[in-house]
Write a structure and sequence with these properties.
binds biotin, Arp2/3 complex 21 kDa subunit ARPC3, membrane, about 65% helix, two-stranded antiparallel ribbon, transport, mainly alpha, BioY, about 180 residues, 2 strands
């Protein structure tokens, strides 16, 4: 991996951490807050692509796992990964690969198609994985968990649109060696 690529990964990891400084917005009816940090995950996916994006998100999650307070609200540690929001964290790790697998579908190479692919991978699937784990960890009926996640769709849709618009402007060349 070239120095330039390592720098790109480190910068995006830093950006995800900075977005986590925005305080989470708690919702009374579900133990999952609205956060801005997932915008950083979406940017990692659409700007860096599957390999460097996964590295950037993986590095961020590793820091969180070993105790650096980099998650929204200054959270950290293994307990968060098995708590109510653990499913979203796993979804975040998968986001760059998911989004980019949708983007291999030819229709999704068009700018609007990219937003659809981004939405499927970074919003819909992450919310579904998050809901499934939420239902298990909080002992909530699956349908209730899924329905309560509808609250995230408007904000997360805006975030993926923004991430795709930014990615159109910030063209980060594909890595050849990772
Ligand atoms: C954490 O910091 O422990 C993870 C928070 C996960 C929040 C999820 S990500 C998808 C959905 N959109 C939001 O704004 N919040 C939830």
């Amino acid at each position: 991996m070239k120095i330039r690529e390592i720098t790109q990964v480190a910068l995006v990891t830093a950006m995800i951490i900075v977005l986590g400084l925005m305080p989470p917005i708690p919702l009374g009816f579900i133990p999952v807050p609205i956060v801005l940090q997932n915008l950083g995950i979406m940017l990692a996916a659409v700007v860096l692509g599957p390999k460097r994006g996964t590295l950037a998100v993986g590095l961020f999650l590793l820091l969180a796992l070993i105790g650096f307070p980099v998650l929204s609200g200054g959270q950290a540690g293994p307990a968060v990964f098995v708590g109510p929001t653990g499913g979203y964290l796993i979804g975040w790790l998968l986001t760059p690969a998911l989004v980019n697998s949708f983007l291999t579908i030819s229709f999704m190479r068009h700018p609007w198609g990219r937003m659809v692919g981004g939405w499927l991978g970074a919003v819909l699937i992450v919310d579904v994985i998050g809901s499934i784990w939420l239902a298990i960890s909080a002992n909530t009926p699956m349908l209730t968990a899924l329905a309560s996640n509808l609250v995230f769709l408007p904000g997360d849709t805006l975030k993926i649109v923004l991430a795709c618009l930014i990615a159109e402007r910030v063209r980060v060349p594909k890595a050849k060696h990772i």
